[in-house]
Amino acid sequence: MSAFQKETVLSVRHWTESLFSFTATRDPGFRFQNGQFAMIGLEVEGKPLMRAYSMASANHEEALEFFSIKVQDGPLTSRLQKIREGDIILVGRKATGTLITGNLIPGKRLLLLSTGTGLAPFASLIKDPDVYENYETIVLAHGCRQVSELAYGEHLVEGLRNHEFFGPLIRDKLVYYPTVTREPFRNRGRITDLIASNQLFDDIGQGGLDIETDRIMLCGSPGMLEELHAMFAARGFVEGNHSQPGHFVIEKAFVQR
To answer: pLDDT tens across 189-248, in order?
Structure first.
């Protein structure tokens, strides 16, 4: 278990029948950049059962936070969803991932496009003061099937807007755009379609995609990532990575949990 740190669960909150978040202690030696992920999990029959999870907490926060789906027959989440305050989880000692601002060339508007629990790395990034220093506008789009699944994101953004430090910082810079596909809501449709039709930008009162000023991060379902990758590439946007910054970056560590 030397590759993993044992941490204590501090709180658990169930948002819907299929979504929950939890916080845990953080080893003082655990370092990460906002937007990265680590391997986390549980000890099962004496062995570590691990999956990749983005940190939803920022790197300046003392506790770690994670946002998870519940997969009833999932090897890990069928167990993880039952954790309670005081339980022990395992956290990998090394953080990694492509959703960091250093993998993007400088721009003016940052689009954070997510579906489901793909919101997690962006929960970390929108708590980063440097993001607001480097971009004039940050657009956080979160697509879900049902309105209830937006609860975590709505709670997150509302908390930041009321935060003593972040409130003034984000008031004129952070645009939150939740959308659902299966229920009536003020924003309806898949993020891919809303961008392709320009509806998302019309709704927020801003101009459409501009390769000169827009930088993009993507995290969500494989289908959404594939569609948007093709769309952006067709428009001349170049994917960035650790060795060569680009116009957009994608987290490819999506796995069935």
So the answer is: 999 999 999 999 999 999 999 999 999 999 999 999 999 999 999 999 999 999 999 999
Q: What digits encode the pLDDT tens for the residues 171-188?
A: 889 999 999 999 999 999
Written in H, E and C, the secondary structure of the chain is CCCEEEEEEEEEEECCCCEEEEEECCCCCCCCCCCCEEEEEEEECCEEEEEEEECCCCCCCCCEEEEEECCCCCCCHHHHCCCCCCCEEEEECCCECCCCHHHECCCCEEEEEEEHHHHHHHHHHCCCHHHHHHCCEEEEEEEECCHHHHHHHHHHHHHHHCCCCHHHHHCCCEEEEEEECCCCCCCECCHHHHHHCCHHHHHCCCCCCCCCCEEEEEECCHHHHHHHHHHHHHCCCCECCCCCCECEEECCCCCCC
Could you say which architecture CATH assigns to the domain 4-96?
A: Beta Barrel (2.40)
CATH topology of domain 101-252: Rossmann fold (3.40.50)
